[in-house]
Amino acid sequence: MRVLMIFFDGWGLGANDPAVNPFLTNPMPTLRGLFDGAMPTTGNGHFQSARAALVPTDATLGVPGLPQSATGQTTIFTGVNAPRQIGEHLGPYPNAALRQILAENNIFQQVVAANRSAAFANAYPPIFFERLARGKARRSATSYAASAANVRYRDTDDLRAGRAVSAFVTNDRWPRTPRVPADGADVPVITAYDAGRNLAQLAREHDFTLFEYFLTDAAGHKAKPDFTAHILAQVDELLRGVIDGTDLSESLIVTTSDHGNLEDSSAKGHTLNPVPTLLIGAQREKIAPRIHALTDLTPAIVDVLLEK
Ligand SMILES: [Zn+2]
């Protein structure tokens, strides 16, 4: 049993209203194909098909205010209700209290402690490692979670070898430093589909693999239809590559998010909507009934991975 988790920042489950929900007005053939041509919305509730399950997942966690990235992600990757612990939704980067929660018993740590292998698939550019060495790197909850478990950060060499995926997926943006040729020619630009295939290959070699994608939240904040369309097409092609490269009889693909944003184009900020937890592949029937809120993801995933 293997799990590939793709964390999409700022992807909520939207209303069944094409005037505000861009998921309804963009093609997304891969996502729709999982649900017999239908796009999941808040109107569907739990959504099962022969290929996948979609579980609306609470991101508000009983704490007033709009959900934010650092608390949402800390909750996803630990199972601890982080906004309740610190008394507010906080983002985008974790503060000391959240970093402490992340360092205690996160999903990477639980997998590694059970002698299973774990990979953090994101590739980081040279400037990140330079800042990290100077103690100046800004890190998201996912990167704190990985480092607490001594799961290594992947770099340009991994990306070039197809053994990592960049935050911009196709590598069309890769931060330049003097060590990297100005044209970035040492890192090939690839399709989102091929990035998905690379991610699936990495996931075949580890028990648990995580990839973090933040452009869904960026597109929600921008609220520009053209950029949103570009991002939704990229997400769909990434998913197609991942699904094509995964043996779904022995692996589970889990996608989830920390809070809504992109699904409502009427506002540029986060929303109170549930987020879609998408389950594709093995053991999804076992996990789906356990997911109600972001707190449920880590315990449910660890249990199926370790076959508890
Ligand atoms: Zn945001």
Concise account of the structure shown:
The chain has 308 residues and is of the alpha/beta class. The protein has helices at 22-25, 29-34, 69-78, 82-86, 96-105, 107-113, 126-133, 141-148, 156-160, 192-204, 215-222, 225-244, 284-287, 297-305; strands at residues 2-8, 47-48, 52-57, 118-120, 122-123, 165-166, 208-213, 251-256, 275-281.
Structure write-up:
- This protein has one domain: 3-Layer(aba) Sandwich (Alkaline Phosphatase, subunit A), CATH 3.40.720.
- Helix content is 38%, strand content 13%.
- It has helices at 22-25, 29-34, 69-78, 82-86, 96-105, 107-113, 126-133, 141-148, 156-160, 192-204, 215-222, 225-244, 284-287, 297-305; strands at residues 2-8, 47-48, 52-57, 118-120, 122-123, 165-166, 208-213, 251-256, 275-281.
- A 7-stranded mixed sheet has the order 2-3-9-8-1-7-4, sandwiched between helices. A two-stranded parallel sheet has the order 5-6.
- Helix 3 runs parallel beside helix 5 (96-105).
